[in-house]
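Aim 2 progress update. The chain analyzed this quarter is reproduced below.
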Amino acid sequence: MKPLAGIRILDLTRVLAGPFCTAILADLGAEVIKLEPPQGDDYRHVGPFVSGESALFALNNRGKQSLVVDLKADEGRALALKMAATADVVVENFRPGVADRLGIGAAALQAVNPQLVVASISGFGQEGPAADLPAYDVVVQAMSGWMDATGEEGGTPLRTGEAIGDVAAGLYAAIGILAALLGRGTHGGSHVDIAMMDCLVAMLPTSHALQHYAGQPVKRTGNRHPLSTPFGAFRSADGQVIIAVLGPRQFAGLCALMGQPELARDPRFTSDETRTSNEPALRALIEAWTTSLPTDALIAELRQAGIPTAPIQTLAQALDSPHARARGLVADLPHHRLGSSRVAGQPIRFDGEKPLSVAGAPALGGDTRPVLTALGLTPDQITGLIAAGIVQETEFA
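Predicted structure tokens:
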């Protein structure tokens, strides 16, 4: 199942947001040609490294071809435009205005291919007062409200443990590209503008509910839910356990399991709102029970009673679970240097099958000759471009 088979994507992205997007599209069957500068994608130089290969680059560039092109040279720009003429999509994540200055902005690209979908990923969008600001994930987390909503109750703001701004922008970019491809038959090509800031603001439904509808400021609540109670982490005899109760039926089941069915009728705890208002008192009652049992025993009892629960696992524990293995959450792909590289891959299943790229991340310039040959260049022309430093190839071709 390769739903994007036949779609050609010219990938001008680097680091995380753009490569995360195009790796998803490669998994789904698109042909992704990654144009890199002579020094390569920045992530090729960021560890951890295995045999000289960046793990971050390997994870986010599976299934792509690499062509090194000097876009600052006239011949390099001409090559990029020639490739765009036969592509369905171009994805770039330069700072706004840079692509235009290089002569490969949306207008220039669509001049050679009016049906082209151009996706531009940036920190703050292609226009607006903050458009020119440099943006890393932590910058956008800080400005979007994510950090303010994250952290221990009464504590300081915290960034999330992953680069959620980059990943969110990559996901929304994939959505935007697929929508633009679907609408291309009616509307022609389009320029899709994806901003990390916009994506993170859109991904705060609970904060928006508090801000716009409840008229309440967003407060940090640590590992508990700001609106639903009991819904979060509780102490056990040997650690912590997640208990996620939503609605009166589940709460009554928890009270019965604790041996205190009368708590479900206590006026302090008869609704989500009153339980949240009286959260400290309810937590004390729950933890008087949970701390009497080890985590494994608690989870067994809660699951038997039909109450959503979980241990707090490390990634290693999660991936070692029978469920993760059955679902194929990670896979090994052939790699030019490592032999094989482990990747997470896109998670969506189509008719029971999960599409995944057939190869790992490419060597820098490893596909120069085959890509340019497919573009119609002769061996002598390719050799001339290599000699002039416009393109380069690698020993791992």
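The longest strand covers residues 31-36. Residues 95 and 300 are 51 Å apart (CA to CA). These observations will guide the mutagenesis experiments scheduled for the next reporting period.
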